[in-house]
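Worked Example 4.2. Consider the chain below.
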Amino acid sequence: MRILVVVLNWNGIADTEECLDALSRQTQPHDVLVVDNGSGPDDVRRLRAREGAMRLRLEPENLGFAGGVNVGIRLAQHEGYDAVALLNNDALPEPGWLAALAATLEDEDASIATGLLVRRSDDAAVAGTIDTAGDGLSVWGMPYPQHRGEPREAAPTAGEVFSASGGASLYRVEVFDAIGLFDEMFFAYFEDIDVGFRARLAGYRIVYTPDAVAHHRIGATSGRIPGFTVHQSFQNLPLLLVKNVPAGLRRVVWPRFALLFTLMLGKAVATGSGVHAIRGVADAVRRLPHAVRERRRIQATVVADVAPLLLRDLPPEQHGMRRLLRVFRR
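Applying the procedure from the previous section yields the following structure tokens:
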């Protein structure tokens, strides 16, 4: 299997160099492409010094996660690669990470393979716990990382998942040939769930393996931008659902999502993030025409029922919402 590993860099050269060093120890043959999203001159200088061991594409501006990885996917399509691995620059894969993902694609007849992301943190209570073991989607319209916060020893066995984390997964190039690339309207956050949702609707299998382990420092890039995560979440969640929720699930998902989204907005206002959240909602409204056009294209080619894959409960991390629902039930 001919594999291209795509790593994005945006003014995070120390993390990127660590990531590249970890990739150099992989047991699975592969090529590496670093896409620099408009970083400063020191990052560019240090990346150029590594050319030869990897390929480099310098973008004049920050294309976001979606736009950046699309640069690599287009290259893989053009040059006839079989698969593209996406790896966050703040993730350190263990030596057998890529080999385990490639074996999963082959052995499980899967189209997308994802592994176990374990947290890197200075907080001893967090370090070594699970970041995600594949991503899920609730009937409340909310994506969530499976088993987040649990001990690494509690990681589940291999099996199908709703979606794969774009931070450390392997995709057959034929998937992108069929469903299209990452949606650059998302810029960052939930764009990987969008790809997984579209792939699922098109009938592709997504499989998780605990043998593909990478160690991830959450928010190393987005944490440098105040309010970024809040803004992107409120912008992208409505787009994800407008595009992808099939007609037969709209009556199940949308009323629940409307309630949850309203409560999330109220919490953002109460905790001082209201400006970022409201701007995110406004940007979502501006992007709705794009989402509706994409919906027509996606829903016209649906071949698979995703309902059995949805969690029939609130996402595990929605503790406040769960307490509120108990009050209503009383």
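The two ends are 57 Å apart (CA to CA). The first strand starts at residue 3 and ends at 9. Compare this with Example 4.1 before moving on.
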